[in-house]
TrEMBL record:
Ranges annotated as spanning the membrane: 24-45, 70-90, 96-116
Protein name from the UniProt record: Putative small-conductance mechanosensitive channel
Domain Mechanosensitive ion channel MscS: 118-187
Organism: Staphylococcus saprophyticus subsp. saprophyticus (strain ATCC 15305 / DSM 20229 / NCIMB 8711 / NCTC 7292 / S-41)
Main location: membrane
Length: 292
């Protein structure tokens, strides 16, 4: 019974002294100061990192997406380092041996290593994705694993452990890097818009091609996604009531389908303006009494 009273007294007795609360308040103020200082430092460092890459790639439009990827990576690494320093500093101020914690973490790490294999795999895969430049922030990608689709959309961010992809239907998907298998990057090479335009068989095909060619010169300046001026490739097929023209244009990466939709809309408007006829269904009257 005496031992219990002694233990309770040793716990309660410091709470009755003003010095305890003074020390607690001092420590709380110290923690707040460290956290605020770390937050301010990170704000300045992150801006400096972004500005550095902006200056490095000034005028190099092809490196902008790569810069966004590296900015995100470097900022993440710096954040981890700063907060680790803050944490170890606070622990040392409370008299906790950081070296002992690290040594213990090494021993415990061996015990939990098998359970953390997924996290390690995510981090290693993240390094390979970033430094092999498999894709960058802003790229449109399709990710599969063992042939099964995982996600498809625009890459919003790439971290050491996970990435975020904005899917075509609007959802924001967060994927562990380790779940990435096969990658199809639609933003590496230029796209191509190819459309087939049916024209009435009664039209002068040379005149139609001339009208289209003249009009296409204004398309490239009107829509940013066209790299080359659209052109009439030629006659693709001929039937009894229509001629099908093939039109092609080079677009920026990943915009081939969008370019095709724009071409169809603009050509339809042009045909109506120039009164160029499109194929119309023909009706054949059958006379059952007609003798062969």
């Amino acid at each position: 019974m005496g031992q219990i009273k002694s233990i309770l007294y040793s716990i309660i007795e410091p709470l009755t002294k003003p010095e305890t609360y003074q020390a607690l308040l001092s420590n709380l103020i110290m923690i707040i100061v460290y956290v605020v200082a770390a937050w301010i430092i990170l704000r300045f460092v992150n801006k400096a990192i972004a500005q550095f890459f902006k200056i490095q790639n000034k005028g190099k439009s092809g490196n902008k997406k790569r810069s966004k990827t590296l900015i995100s990576l470097v900022q993440n690494v710096v954040s981890y380092v700063v907060w680790f320093i803050v944490l170890t500093t606070i622990l040392s101020k409370f008299g906790i041996s950081v070296g002992g914690i690290i040594a213990s973490a090494g021993v415990v790490g061996l015990a939990v290593g098998f359970g953390a294999q997924t996290v390690v795999k995510d981090i290693i895969t993240g390094f390979f994705i970033i430094f092999e430049n498999q894709f960058d922030v802003g790229d449109y990608v399709k990710i599969s694993n063992s042939g099964s689709p995982v996600a498809e959309g625009t890459v919003k961010s790439i971290g050491l452990r996970s990435m975020r992809i904005n899917t075509i239907t609007g959802e924001l998907t967060t994927l562990p890097n380790g779940s990435v298998g096969e990658i199809t990057n639609y933003s590496v090479i230029n796209g191509e818009a190819i459309v087939e335009i049916p024209v009435s068989i009664s039209e002068d095909i040379d005149h139609v091609e001339e009208v289209l060619t003249t009009y296409f010169e204004s398309i490239r300046s009107k829509y940013y996604l066209f790299i080359s001026t659209p052109e009439v490739v030629g006659v693709n097929s001929i039937t009894n009531n229509e001629i099908v023209l093939s039109v092609s244009a080079e677009t920026i990466p990943g915009e081939g389908a969008s370019g095709g939709r724009i071409l169809r809309k603009e050509i339809l408007k042009l045909f109506k303006l120039k009164e160029i006829k499109t194929p119309q269904p023909t009706m054949v009257q059958y006379d059952a009494n007609q003798q062969k």
